[in-house]
């Protein structure tokens, strides 16, 4: 028997993430400093942890309904209403998921069919394409490198027209991983004017919404285009709860009625104790991201100052916790090779830009979700490596 040849053929099109490949290639370096993780270095707030402990002590350890605890969905509904002006009914327009990743998987598996096309501004987080590929669909990237990583309505409309009837959805991630780019209310309204002309889904990954650094704050496309938009969010970044795995889908009832089918058979329901912690996070911890934002901004500005002085080109990010820096001329533009050599010489790890697709090559991504001491030491070693 040769069962190895009977797997889903779409798996042949999927590779292990280049992020993981790079991490593995340098994993033997002792004492390496890592500015790689998309994970807050802050602990989960104490009051959130206590809420989970109470749930355990009170034996709240049974399945919830597939949509998640109603009390949590009510808290989520109030949170997005207060923060972003969005209105979603907790009874039938909000689903609780196992992180934003499962929210994306459930959404895309409910929407996509073989031969469909999904548009994605690039460079982009590498987690979207494998899900789309498994569905037999295809990602088509929109190159934003010539416009400082900013998508424009004209670029979006041109890409939509080029794909024609094959186009099923657009994925918008803002603030964006890896670039930190986000969009103003005016820009969102302009995107909505384009998208409303076409019969396509718009999937908005807004998991970094609470880490938006502009004075205006975060604006969701759903404010302007509710009837086409599926909003993905979660508590990993806003409340330093990556390991708790709590995400949300916000969408019109006609969408959630279908998405819950794929969600049900993927996972049944999210972790019950984590859901009770989520209620605490979204109510008592309504503004738990604010102290983190203050520190992230300090770290961001420090890195930009130091790396710019070393010759890197950086577009100042307005959200998330990443710096996406262009490697200076005179060094290899192969980001994987550049960072492997840097890691071997100075025991510091960044992420190669190539991990974020062809339009990320020539760049490196640093996460400033690391202590200032770690960041300062890493940049001193970078300065030494570049002989400056």
Indicate the proportion of strand residues: 5-15%
Backbone CA Rg: 21 Å
Helix-residue proportion = 25-40%
Major sheet characteristics = 7 strands, mixed
Strands, total number: 13
- How do the strands of the widest beta sheet line up side by side? 2-8-7-6-5-3-4
Give the low-confidence spans: none
Helices and strands, in order, run as HEHHEHEHEHEHEEEHHHEEHEEEH
How far apart are the first and last residues' alpha carbons, in Å? Answer: 60 Å
Mean pLDDT: 96
Total of DSSP H or I helical runs spanning 4+ residues: 12
Overall 3D geometry? Answer: globular
Structural class designation: alpha/beta
Task: Please tell me about this protein's structure.
By secondary structure, the protein is an alpha/beta fold. It has 12 helices and 13 strands. It has helices spanning 18-25, 46-57, 70-84, 99-111, 128-134, 153-163, 185-195, 253-267, 272-283, 289-309, 335-346, 372-385, and strands at 33-34, 94-97, 117-122, 138-143, 167-173, 201-205, 229-234, 247-250, 313-314, 322-326, 348-349, 351-352, 363-367. A 7-stranded mixed β-sheet has the order 2-8-7-6-5-3-4, with helices on both faces. A 4-stranded antiparallel β-sheet has the order 9-10-13-12. The protein has a two-stranded parallel sheet with strand order 1-11. The protein is globular and about 60 Å long. The model has no long low-confidence stretch (mean pLDDT 96).
Short overview:
39% of the residues lie in helices and 14% in strands. It contains twelve helices and 13 strands. GO terms for molecular function: pyridoxal phosphate binding; transaminase activity.
């Amino acid at each position: 028997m040769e069962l190895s040849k009977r797997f889903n053929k779409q798996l042949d099109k999927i590779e292990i993430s280049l992020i993981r490949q790079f991490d593995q290639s340098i994993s033997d370096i002792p004492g390496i400093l890592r500015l790689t993780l998309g994970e807050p270095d802050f602990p989960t707030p104490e009051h959130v942890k206590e809420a989970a402990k109470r749930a355990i002590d009170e034996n709240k350890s049974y399945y919830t309904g597939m949509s998640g605890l109603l009390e949590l969905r009510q808290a989520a509904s109030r949170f997005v209403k207060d923060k972003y002006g969005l209105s979603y009914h907790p009874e039938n327009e909000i689903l609780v998921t196992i992180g934003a990743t499962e929210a994306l998987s459930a959404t895309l598996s409910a929407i996509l069919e073989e031969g469909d096309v999904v548009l994605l501004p690039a460079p982009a987080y590498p987690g979207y394409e494998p899900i789309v590929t498994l569905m037999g669909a295809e990602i088509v990237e929109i190159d934003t490198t010539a416009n400082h990583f900013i998508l424009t309505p004209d670029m979006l409309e041109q890409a939509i027209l080029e794909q024609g009837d094959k186009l099923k959805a657009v994925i918008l991630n803002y603030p964006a991983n890896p670039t930190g780019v986000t969009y103003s209310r005016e820009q969102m309204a302009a995107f909505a004017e384009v998208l409303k002309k076409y019969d396509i889904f718009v999937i908005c990954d807004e998991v970094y919404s609470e880490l938006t650094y502009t004075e205006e704050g975060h604006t969701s496309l759903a404010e302007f285009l509710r009837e086409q938009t599926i909003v993905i969010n979660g508590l990993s970044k806003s409340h330093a709860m990556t390991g708790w795995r709590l995400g949300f889908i916000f969408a019109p009832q006609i969408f959630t009625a279908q998405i819950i089918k794929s969600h049900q058979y993927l996972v049944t329901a999210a972790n019950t104790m984590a859901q009770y912690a989520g209620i605490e996070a979204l109510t008592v911890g309504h503004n738990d991201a604010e102290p983190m934002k203050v520190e992230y901004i300090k770290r961001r500005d420090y890195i930009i100052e130091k790396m710019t002085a070393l010759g890197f080109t950086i577009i100042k990010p307005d959200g998330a916790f990443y710096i996406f820096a262009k490697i200076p001329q005179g060094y290899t533009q192969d980001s994987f090779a550049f960072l492997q050599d840097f890691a071997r010489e100075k025991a510091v790890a960044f992420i190669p830009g190539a991990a974020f697709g062809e339009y990320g090559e020539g760049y490196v991504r640093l996460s400033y979700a690391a202590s200032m001491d770690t960041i300062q030491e890493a940049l001193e070693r970078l300065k030494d490596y570049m002989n400056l």
